[in-house]
Specification:
Blueprint: H1 3-40, H2 44-79
Helix pairs in contact: 1-2
């Protein structure tokens, strides 16, 4: 594998991680509608479950975004000769 192929593969990995973050954000949007439905049905345990899941997802998003920012910047520094 040459250096150009390695760079492309690395960039592709960052793109995949961004897709994961985007899918988590979509899940959060859907959860908002779920909470409204659970509230209308007075299902407090389901609301609680959704809140816990939301917190976990938000933490994952934060960690992934930090990871991407850190390692993508690091990769850009090491690519140049």
């Amino acid at each position: 594998m040459n250096e150009t192929e390695a760079i492309i593969k690395l960039e592709h990995r960052f793109d995949l991680l961004r897709e994961v973050v985007a899918s988590y954000r979509i899940r959060l949007e859907h959860m908002e509608a779920e909470v409204v439905q659970w509230f209308a049905a007075n299902q407090l345990s389901e609301i609680s479950r959704c809140i816990q899941e939301k917190q976990k997802i938000m933490l994952r998003i934060e960690k992934l975004e930090k990871f991407i920012k850190k390692w993508e910047a690091n990769a850009e520094l090491t690519i140049e000769h």
